[in-house]
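Morning - magnesium ion inputs below, output right after.
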Amino acid sequence: MIGQIPKPLQGVARMKEIGALAGVLIVMAAFTIMSDRFLTPGNMVSVFTVTSELGIIAVGVCFLMISGEFDLSVGSVFAISPMLGATIAAAGAPLWVGLLAGLAVAAAIGFVNGQLVLRTGVPSFIITLGGMMFYRGVILAVSGGFPVSYLQPSEFMHYLGGRTAMGLRWSGIWFIVLVIVFQIILARTRYGNHVSAVGGNAGTAKAVGIDVARVKMTNFMLCSMTAALAGFMRFGRFRSVDPTAGRLMELEAIAACVIGGALLTGGYGSIVGAFLGAFLMGVMRSGLILAGPPPYWYQGFIGLVLVISVILNTRIRKAVAGS
Amino acid sequence: MSTETRQNEIVRQQEPRGNIPREARESLAFVDNVTMKFNKVVALRNVSFKVGYNEVVGLLGDNGAGKSTLIKVLNGFHQPTAGQIYLDGRPVNFKSPRDSRDAGIETAYQDLALVDLMTITRNFFLGRELQRRVGPFKFLDMPRMNEIAAKSMAEVGLRNIREMYETVSFLSGGERQAIAIGRATFFGAKLLILDEPTAAISVAETEWVLRLVAEAKQNGLSVIMITHNAYEVFDVADRFVVLQQGENYADLKREETNAKELIEIIAGRK
Ligand SMILES: Nc1ncnc2c1ncn2[C@@H]1O[C@H](COP(=O)(O)OP(=O)(O)O)[C@@H](O)[C@H]1O
Ligand SMILES: [Mg+2]
């Protein structure tokens, strides 16, 4: 019960992001001690750039997860949408047409995911696992395994993944904007309230008249589209898309959400938490490289941090929110 | 869609088809000869049920008798396989519980009452959130919702609430019912449906819930209270309807019976 926590700390404990925030601070402190190249503006900026692409995926995944569903196909969408966009642009169409086409395909994939889940009753974990493999297969087959590049100078590209002030990239700006917008929708709008209700207890949501299927469909499509956006930002950064791009990012995105306090079973979570979770993963990747141990340790450390943070988050949540 | 246009639409769709039964014209709500099938399971077979204006009806029956299904058909959670629902003497065709809520029917479900991980305020207003406009956007009006929910909780005698931002998972069974009852009063419901509100709560809380039911009646509402404990509702209900295996079994005014007899009827011994 909340009563067991000292009064002044209750408000802090109620923050869904508190575990992730603590994790970020502790890990950053540790790496700062281990390497004097870690906490430098240059390194932080590059950490943030890597974080942004994963983080934008995590924003959509988190929003969908709060409404009670998974999407494991985001890593494949991360590649398929910019691949299509780049192919269209390379054929001579304006880049924005490619972007719109990529987003439309992502929306269609989200639509198919949602319809399959809602109509068959098969858990989204399985449906989108199948989707992940299927779409990856399609990309590899169609591309023959070769990357697609777009090397002409382009202002539009610049605003996707190019550099802006202080070495930051535009993707970082878009990431922050998306986090703020989705967090406000989640916490401060009627739609966000319905998202939490649908994931918390779909039966209750239906019983008060919320259109459960519509909320889930919307979120499947939004989630897929944010993954596509993230893919376009990677494209903007490298000016080419690799058909293997985004592999494992679906799992990293889920890890970021869970580290950020989201409940795997839905109904509870925070977009700001997912932001911190993604940032924590970026910090660890960079810190482990700088601190010396072989970078292979990254996977192992992420695994440890994931498990520890979920245990902590579960305890805190039981105390402040029950169940 | 605004509440008003929805309501118009609900009414418009149901131009009286043929004669309206006398019971429908005389009752607040009338369920006429309804059958409800779930695939092969027949949960209700030709059941009729009415609740009058300002009347408290105790809906009784053994587990699986079809009580919950009946009220879910009445409020649009399920659409009946056959039969017709009337409200205020007019045929209605609720497509979802949202339609029945808009028409003044507030239900506290046995199994689906609240979202545990959400706060008291958010549960209180779920599906009917108050909003405030900022430029082209609409945001939840949290301060006003918190204030109203807190006031309403105080009115129904919910004293243990420390903060409105607490989730409802810490509330007792009686406190959960109190939220539903307070919500019905605030939103001006005509009919309050409570599905086994006392199933898992203490004796003291049971009395509290029964008192709230009596108060609701004093305030002019009609109430359907589902239970399988006849003693419990005997003093608050005006009439008792007993279902058995999905069929009408008995319909008695309080003057005509007593709790002991009702128990025999529910058990099918009479
Ligand atoms: N959604 C459903 N799907 C299938 N069968 C159902 C459903 N809801 C209720 N039933 C069945 O209908 C019958 C009546 O159930 P219910 O109305 O819940 O009874 P009561 O509330 O009187 O205990 C039971 O046999 C139950 O298994
Ligand atoms: Mg029941």
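Note: The first helix of chain B runs from residue 3 to 13.

O.
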